[in-house]
Amino acid sequence: MITIHAFKNGKWEARQVRGETDLALPEGAVWLDLASPGEDEKAFVARAIGADVPTREEMQEIEASSRLYQENGAVYMTATILSRLEPDHIDAAAITFILAGQRLVTLRYTEPRPFEVFAARLRKGIAGGETSPDLMLGLLEAIVDRLADIVEATGNGANDISHRIFRQGKGPGGLDLHQAITDIGIEGDHVTKLRESLASISRMVMFLGQAAGPHLPAQDFPERLRTLGRDTASLIDHVGFLSSKITFLLDASLGMINIQQNNIIKIFSVAAVVFLPPTLIASIYGMNFAHMPELAHEFGYPLALGLMVVSAVLPYVYFKSKKWL
């Protein structure tokens, strides 16, 4: 599907085109948003802007030369953008931006929320800007704002896990460390995808300011671009901090599991030592020799039982005094 955003009569209008590839672009068309397009739709846009549209396989390539380049007067930039599909699942997908003259083309196979939000703001007239570079920068700002929200949510998730590990673990109900490790893994996956997305956007902003400079307006665009670069850098630093924190929480959880296992092994070890002397006494008096004086004693049986109890209690008291139990 193609959504065509055109600036006409002082306002933005959006028109959706699905399968109709023989139409001419409306007057004032600036932003062509391709969402999971077919080959006919991609060919239609390529003819309209006079430049090739990359394939989905080309978008997945990770080397910088395949993601950031200029060709036939058009500037191609591909970044990894995040979409929150569920509260505990984030999807990372490549999105390509093409600056071709007065038109901006976005090619995507996902539904990131910043695109929907920015398009709504554009229709309401509060997004600002009328040119393709303005729209592209506005989109990037909306994407970075959304990434900042995801970074904040991930930080809150890490804080919640930390509270559960170090506070709730002391309560009567204890702590489900297996669930904690699962949650840590989810937050760690989020951090990895955030780092990948922010790194790709940072490279894209740098390329946009350097290689694509002649295509950009000279008004407030450079300052907005520098601000966006600083925001991206600060988010990358914060994501690095979150990565270290999640690694610490994982190590702490695994350490607590080891402590629990050691406590269980210690209990069995102490139990074996406590019951070893009574077992020895029972073994001695269980031998079938013909002449064992204690067996003929009137109080031999209760004395043997008492000796077994004492031999079990003394090690237990000793271990308690050493705080081994």
Automatic annotation (TrEMBL):
<keyword id="KW-1003">Cell membrane</keyword>
<keyword id="KW-0472">Membrane</keyword>
<keyword id="KW-0997">Cell inner membrane</keyword>
<dbReference type="GO" id="GO:0015099">
    <property type="term" value="F:nickel cation transmembrane transporter activity"/>
</dbReference>
<dbReference type="GO" id="GO:0005886">
    <property type="term" value="C:plasma membrane"/>
</dbReference>
<protein>
    <recommendedName>
        <fullName>Magnesium transport protein CorA</fullName>
    </recommendedName>
</protein>
<dbReference type="Pfam" id="PF01544">
    <property type="entry name" value="CorA"/>
</dbReference>
<feature type="transmembrane region" description="Helical">
    <location>
        <begin position="264"/>
        <end position="287"/>
    </location>
</feature>
<keyword id="KW-0460">Magnesium</keyword>
<dbReference type="InterPro" id="IPR045863">
    <property type="entry name" value="CorA_TM1_TM2"/>
</dbReference>
<keyword id="KW-0812">Transmembrane</keyword>
<dbReference type="InterPro" id="IPR050829">
    <property type="entry name" value="CorA_MIT"/>
</dbReference>
<dbReference type="InterPro" id="IPR002523">
    <property type="entry name" value="MgTranspt_CorA/ZnTranspt_ZntB"/>
</dbReference>
<dbReference type="GO" id="GO:0015095">
    <property type="term" value="F:magnesium ion transmembrane transporter activity"/>
</dbReference>
<dbReference type="GO" id="GO:0015087">
    <property type="term" value="F:cobalt ion transmembrane transporter activity"/>
</dbReference>
<comment type="similarity">
    <text>Belongs to the CorA metal ion transporter (MIT) (TC 1.A.35) family.</text>
</comment>
<keyword id="KW-1133">Transmembrane helix</keyword>
<keyword id="KW-0813">Transport</keyword>
<feature type="transmembrane region" description="Helical">
    <location>
        <begin position="299"/>
        <end position="319"/>
    </location>
</feature>
<dbReference type="InterPro" id="IPR045861">
    <property type="entry name" value="CorA_cytoplasmic_dom"/>
</dbReference>
<keyword id="KW-0406">Ion transport</keyword>
